[in-house]
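look at this one:
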Amino acid sequence: MAPRPSGAPTRPAAPSATGDAGVHNGVRRTGFPLDPVVTVDFGVIQRETSARTQKSANDPAEGPVRTCIGCRRRELAVDLLRVVAVDDATGRNAVTVDVARRLPGRGAWLHPDPRCLDHAVRRRAFGRALRITGSPDITAVIERFASTETLDSPGQENR
């Protein structure tokens, strides 16, 4: 044990169970007769910060982070599509893409990648993420992905 610097505050250990109030030469002893005197040097103790505190302290201006329901990766909300459940004319739940990110209700987040959509469909993640019973109608989301795929396909920009 390293020597304590002079003037550093110390705190004695808990009192002993022997009834002598646990004090010996001004220092409290633990209840075990073979334990040495325990002193704590508060000048040496360093507190660890949580991962949440460290992350927010490093980059507070990045924005909110959301989890994709397809691949389960965390990304900034501006990089993901927000989908919400709305009631359609038949009384069933339908999932639609919230382009303006202003529709009421619980939203779920999805990468604009067809693989993430495929993963979310196979895992039946829309119902769980939006907390709705049954399998929702996701044709609007599929159509949105199909329309962006045709615009992004190579060789189509000059036609």
Observations:
- Residues 7-44 form one domain.
- The chain has two domains: 7-44, 62-152.
- The chain is about 25% helix and 20% strand.
